[in-house]
Amino acid sequence: MFYIEQLFNGITQGSIYALMAIGYSLIFGTLGLVTFVYGEVVVFGVFVGYYLYAVMGLNFGLALALGLVVTWGVGIIVDKVCYEKFRNAPRLIMLITTIGFAIFLKSSTQIVFGTQQRNMPDILGHVFLNIGTFRIPFIQILIILACIFFIVGLQLLLYRTRIGTALRALSMDKDAAFLVGVDVDKVIKFGHSLGCVLGVFGGVLLGVFYNAINPIMGPNIGLKAFTATVLGGITSIPGAVIGGLILGVMENLTVAVYSAGYRDIIAFIILITVLVIRPSGLFGRKLES
Amino acid sequence: MDQLFSLIEKIKQKSVYYLIPIGIFVLIFPQLTDNQYVLHVSIRILIYMLLASSLNMIVGYTGQYNIGQAGFYAIGAYTAAIIATRAGYSFLLILPICGILAASMSVFLGFPTLRLRGIFFAFTTLGFSEVVRLTILNWRTLTRGTFGIPGIPLPEIVNFQVSTNNHFYYLGLFLLVIMLFISHRLINSRIGRAWVAIREDEDAAKAMGVETFKYKMINLMYGTFWAGIAGGFFAYFAGYVSADSFILDESFAILAMVLVGGKGTLVGPIVGAIILTILPELVREIARYRLVIFGIAILVMVHYRPQGIAGARAEGRRIAVESEYEAGTAEPVTETSGKGS
Fold first, then answer.
1. DSSP assignment of B32-77
2. Would you tell me which of A155, A190, B156, B195 could form a disulfide with B61, CB atoms 3.0–4.6 Å apart?
3. What is the ipTM of this complex?
4. Is the pLDDT of residue B127 over 90?
């Protein structure tokens, strides 16, 4: 019984990781590189939303919307500062700029919003769904539904709209996309900000799930999103979903069997294992080694 | 700004003449002041110099972005703390063990990641340093968890008790000089040339017969070895270790020192460590914003002076050529589609 509850916890958390991993893989697809600033942008966005809701007293939906608008802006700033000038430079230079920006954003978030953990307001209270002998918190079902909603929405965007087609073209071949008339610069900005916004959705849901948000969780979010993405195969969106789910379930089962202190180590162990056994991930294209 | 940089260039050209007075000053420095606070800060600078130099070996000479150097620093410090408080071995025995243990952990990290592209390595090091910290916090029987390990005895070197800040200063200076000397010899050897070849173009190096994986592994072990030594020295100097000293911010600070000072030169990280440690000490008001400034400093450096304050010119020129190429003002000399790294 206990394990089944933990399994359900794992699926809930896994769907949040899946959402973050999709955002990450979207950024990887458009920029063609691993970004370090992702986790920090997510934390910043979540805290802006939290601040507007809990301190300024705005309505939840409005606060979330404004948080997302700010995140979109931060995404564009990150692109301006970190990527724009270096689009054709060696990739390691963009690695340095994202590390620099991550350091900057992480400490700024801590200075602006303080370093202590904040309690996320309980939106639904303790409503449970009883199925036979199981008691499933209603909020978990809502989280899973929200994640499915965003994932389906993103799939529709990618396969049914012009900008989605442009994004997919870009992730296949940047030069070819440019040749057939894609406004590469604009689409990169769009893809990057969209990825960040998806991450913030994930971050908010994670805050709701844990009932708490923490200004220093940025690197952890980045690492988990990265792990889920690598596990699924780095540019594959269905892969990212499955990677996120596996990560979430593994984490919660380990916590159930072992100790909560080791929760954040699981992601690292999975990452190392994947890199040793199958660096291209479960569903990925073969990477050059 | 440009004038400042050209001044630095001039100083660099005549660096040999400046080296002698600087060396003398560094040697007699503890005799000039009785201020324990100043000495304390100088020793901390020495530790950061050691750490930044060790990271520079990895980041600057093979271009592998290790952003979890604090993890290896922590391994060194905890090794020293645990062995010294429990087994009571002598300092001279423990210090190398710190380095060796840190280096052997890096094998575990390097084996899966060094075969892949650099970005995987970078992310894995970040995770590794967090894992080290979490293990320290959770493995209570060995590390006492959040309480830290107090009461590390003062080091004794062949019947000489290292006790005052003066003594620690010279000990730290000695370690740094040894490190720089060995590194200097190594860089100008076959191994060092292989490292630089990998940094410049890994595929080309491989094509020329350099066993890139092996040399990257040697490089990682060498760099982390010195981080472990720095950790051991820190443990003895502070007399107390706790997981709080080895958070990610520490890794970021060390990386900032390397990047701001100038990667790929021996002088660069030294300059970076001095500037970035003294700055928050001098202006107390900005100490809180330390890492914000470090982050901005890295970004400014990458945009305007990619080789760092004291760095070699090479990389800057490459970017200049590329931006001219982009603007259409230069003939494309080489294929620079950015797919190489």
1. H---HHHHHHHHHHHHHHHHHHHHHHHHHHS------HHHHHHHHH
2. B195
3. 0.81
4. no
